[in-house]
C-alpha cells in the first residue's frame, strides 16, 4: 500500500514494553515516552500483524524498552509468525541473550540487531548505565552459535562514544558480524535533552567510503551502505543529516498502549486501536474490520517528517 507521498508500507515496528534494564542517556523510547504500562498481549499483537500483512507489511521488528524483558516473548514471536509475516526481527541491548537466544530461535525469530555503543567497559557503563559489556559480547556470540543470520549491530554515534567507532568496526570484522549500523543521534525522547552530544557522521562516513569496495543507497530511509574489504557491511542511518530520510520511511509503529503511530517524531499522527483489540463483545471479524479501517486511516495520514517538508517548501519558494 502506497501513501500520499508514494511511500510503501512494508514494516511494522512493535514496542513490546517501556521497561528497560539499561538506561542509555540518549534513548528515544521509540517516540512513546517511558510511562510504565502493561504491553499488548501476544494475541492483540497477532491481530494487528495479521491485518498489517493485508496492507503489504512483510516484516515485523520488535523493540522496547527492552523486548527481552517480556516473559512471553517467545509466544509473541510465534504468534506473529503464524499470521504470515515473512520476517520477525528484534532490536535488543543483548544483556539477556545468553540465556534465551535458543528459545527465541525455536519460536521463529529470524533476525536480531544488538545495540553496542562502546567496547571499553567504562565507556559502555557511561552510555548505558550498566556494567554489562561482557554479557552483551557473550550474547552476540550466543546468537551466532544458534545460527541467527544476518547478525547486525547498532551503534549510536555521540560525542561521548565517538572514539569507540573504529573499535566497533574492528570488533565487527573480527567476529564476522554481517552488518554494522552506525546511527546518528535522533532528537527524540531523551535524545532531545542530550542532543548537545550530537556528533556529525560526516568524517566517519567519508573514511568508511574511502575504505569501501562497494557502496549503494538503500531504498529504506535512503541509507548509504558500504561494503568493506573484509565483507562487513556498514549502513549509515542519518535521520537528522539526511533531508530525504523520511521520504524512504516504510513503517508504521504499534505502541505499547495500542496505537498505530505513523511517525517516530510525532504524537499527533496516531490512531488508537485499543477498542478493536479489547472489545470482546464484537465478533473476531468485526474487530479485524475495525483494524483494517485503522490501517486505511494510518496510511492516509502518513507523511514525511519536518525536515523533508521544509526542504520541499524551500525548493518551492
Ligand atoms: N532496548 C533495545 C535496544 O537497546 O536495542 C530496543 C529499544 S532501543 C530504543 C532501539 C534502538 O534505538 C537501539 O539500537 C538504540 O540504540 C536506538 N536509539 C535509541 N535512542 C536513540 C536516539 N536518540 N538516536 C538514535 N538511535 C537511538
TrEMBL record:
Source organism per UniProt: Metallosphaera hakonensis JCM 8857 = DSM 7519
Residue positions binding GTP: 13, 61, 91, 152, 251-253
Domain Radical SAM core: start-end pairs: 4-225
Pathways per UniProt: Cofactor biosynthesis; molybdopterin biosynthesis
Family annotation (PANTHER family): MOLYBDENUM COFACTOR BIOSYNTHESIS PROTEIN 1 (PTHR22960:SF0), MOLYBDOPTERIN COFACTOR SYNTHESIS PROTEIN A (PTHR22960)
UniProt cross-references to InterPro entries, sorted A to Z: Aldolase_TIM, Elp3/MiaA/NifB-like_rSAM, MoaA-like, MoaA_arc, MoaA_NifB_PqqE_Fe-S-bd_CS, MoaA_twitch, MoCo_biosynth_MoaA/MoaC, rSAM
Molecular function terms from GO: 4 iron, 4 sulfur cluster binding; cyclic pyranopterin monophosphate synthase activity; GTP 3',8'-cyclase activity; GTP binding; metal ion binding; S-adenosyl-L-methionine binding
Protein's name according to its UniProt entry: Probable GTP 3',8-cyclase
The organism's place on the tree of life at top rank: Archaea
Function (record text): Catalyzes the cyclization of GTP to (8S)-3',8-cyclo-7,8-dihydroguanosine 5'-triphosphate.
Amino acid at each position: 500500500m502506497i501513501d500520499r507521498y508514494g511511500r510503501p508500507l512494508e514494516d511494522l515496528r512493535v514496542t513490546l514494553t517501556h521497561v528497560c534494564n539499561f538506561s542509555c542517556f540518549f534513548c528515544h523510547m521509540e517516540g512513546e515516552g517511558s510511562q510504565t504500562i502493561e504491553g499488548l498481549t501476544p494475541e492483540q499483537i497477532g491481530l494487528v500483524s495479521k491485518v498489517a500483512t493485508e496492507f503489504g507489511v512483510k516484516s515485523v521488528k520488535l523493540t522496547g524498552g527492552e523486548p527481552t524483558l517480556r516473559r512471553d516473548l517467545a509466544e509473541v514471536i510465534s504468534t506473529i509468525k503464524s499470521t504470515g509475516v515473512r520476517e520477525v526481527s528484534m532490536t535488543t541491548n543483548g544483556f539477556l541473550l545468553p540465556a534465551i537466544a535458543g528459545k527465541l530461535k525455536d519460536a521463529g525469530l529470524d533476525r536480531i540487531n544488538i545495540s553496542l555503543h562502546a567496547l571499553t567497559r567504562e565507556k559502555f557503563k557511561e552510555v548505558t548505565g550498566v556494567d554489562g559489556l561482557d554479557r552483551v559480547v557473550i550474547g552476540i556470540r550466543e546468537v551466532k552459535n544458534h545460527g541467527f543470520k544476518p547478525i547486525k549491530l547498532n551503534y549510536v554515534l555521540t560525542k561521548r562514544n565517538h572514539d569507540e567507532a573504529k573499535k566497533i568496526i574492528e570488533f565487527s570484522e573480527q567476529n564476522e558480524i554481517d552488518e554494522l549500523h552506525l546511527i546518528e543521534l535522533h532528537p527524540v525522547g531523551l535524545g532531545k535533552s542530550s542532543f548537545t552530544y550530537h556528533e556529525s557522521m560526516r568524517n566517519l562516513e567519508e573514511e568508511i567510503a574511502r575504505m569501501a569496495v562497494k557502496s549503494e543507497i538503500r531504498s529504506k530511509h535512503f541509507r548509504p551502505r558500504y561494503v568493506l574489504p573484509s565483507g562487513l557491511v556498514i549502513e549509515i542511518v542519518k535521520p537528522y543529516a539526511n533531508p530525504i530520510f523520511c521520504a524512504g520511511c516504510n513503517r508504521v509503529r504499534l505502541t505499547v498502549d495500542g496505537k498505530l503511530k505513523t511517525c517516530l517524531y510525532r504524537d499527533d499522527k496516531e490512531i488508537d486501536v485499543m477498542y478493536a483489540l479489547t472489545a470482546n463483545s464484537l465478533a473476531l471479524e468485526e474487530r479485524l474490520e475495525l483494524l483494517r479501517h485503522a490501517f486505511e486511516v494510518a496510511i492516509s495520514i502518513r507523511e514525511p517528517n519536518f525536515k523533508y517538508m521544509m526542504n520541499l517548501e524551500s525548493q518551492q519558494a
